[in-house]
Amino acid sequence: MSITATELKENLSKYLLLSATEDVYITKNGKVVSKLTNPFRERVEVAKSLFGVLPADIGEEEAREERLNKI
Asked: In which domain of life is the source organism classified (predicted)?
């Protein structure tokens, strides 16, 4: 989403909430000058990509051994 700096000033709380789920690009005089983003979003995406990597019936110790054997 792209908004003007004036729009950001007028509705800051709205865009702070919105930035939790998507990047908000701030423009001034038609040029992007900043990006409002969630600093943890990348971590969440990485964590989501790991779900389902290990079988559901494997224990913590077995998972650790399997990981060490691959190194």
From this structure: Bacteria
